[in-house]
Design brief:
Elements lengths: L9 H23 L21 E7 L2 H8 L5 E9 L8 H4 L7 E8 L6 H12 L7 E2 L2 E2 L5 E4 L3 H16 L10 E2 L5 E3 L7 H4 L4 H17 L11 H4 L4
Parallel strand pairs: 6-7
Antiparallel strand pairs: 1-3, 1-6, 2-3, 2-8, 4-5
Helix pairs in contact: 1-7, 2-4, 2-7, 4-7
């Protein structure tokens, strides 16, 4: 994704808005048809009426779009952009962008397992959040920090993810094999504040218009029962001073 900073020059913002408005209508309908719907997992987690919260950590390219997708999913209570796969002292945007830290731009999804299962989270991840057949890249973004990876937070998640990838590959759900890596035992580190809720705050930014807004449309079209119109935002959950 383009290098972002907490401060955008006004002239750049104005130019971005002009570009976005000029091609948004022709990009969205075309991209909205490009989603790759996959079947639900045969092996999934079982609902536990005593459990009210579970965490999934996923990487699928630039975290702006992945966060935007899961913020619109019913049952998700929090979706935080960040880094996973590397050490704590390198979990910073400028360092991760060097493609030397082992980190991937990731998303920590907190969800209510009574409302949505881990398997359904993965179904959305494989269907609309990213392309799991692209190795160490997503669209225009290249590097291991944009890799497709699942970071299970417990052994059951590992089993579900492994079985699901095998299921999709055996069913030839995609034209080529899935390259998603399963990397258990990795810590998650939240990204800088200016990356949080980026899609919602910058919905006319050209990169968002062409790469990420179509994902929201695909979610709405393919998973209408799981789509929520109002996103759950990081800013809304932040404590007030």
């Amino acid at each position: 994704m383009p290098r972002a900073s907490p401060f955008f020059r006004p002239a750049l913002i104005f130019t971005a808005l002009l570009l976005a408005s000029s091609f948004a209508l022709r990009v969205l309908p075309l991209a909205a048809e490009s989603a790759h719907s996959v079947p639900p997992p045969a092996l999934d987690t079982h609902a536990n009426p005593q459990a009210t919260s579970e965490v999934a950590i996923l990487a699928g390219g630039c975290f702006w779009g992945v966060q935007g997708v899961f913020q619109h999913v019913q049952g998700v209570t929090s979706a935080v952009s960040g880094y996973a796969g590397g050490a704590a002292d390198t979990a910073h945007y400028e360092m991760v962008s060097s493609n030397t830290t082992g980190h991937a731009e990731s998303l920590r999804v907190t969800f209510d397992p009574r409302r949505i299962s881990y398997g359904r989270i993965l179904q959305i991840y494989f269907s609309v959040a990213h392309d799991p057949t692209e190795l160490n890249r997503q669209g225009p973004d290249v590097g291991t920090q944009y890799r497709s990876a699942i970071f299970p937070t417990n052994p059951q998640q590992t089993r579900v993810a492994e079985a699901y990838i095998t299921q999709l590959n055996q069913a030839h759900a995609f034209d080529v094999a899935i390259v998603t890596k399963i990397e258990p035992g990795r810590d998650f580190y939240p990204a800088e504040d200016y990356h949080q809720d980026f899609l919602t705050r910058n919905s006319r930014y050209p990169y968002i218009v062409s790469n990420d807004l179509p994902k929201i449309e695909n979610l709405k079209r393919l998973f209408p029962d799981l789509y929520r119109a109002t996103p759950v935002l990081v800013a809304a959950a932040a404590p007030r001073s």
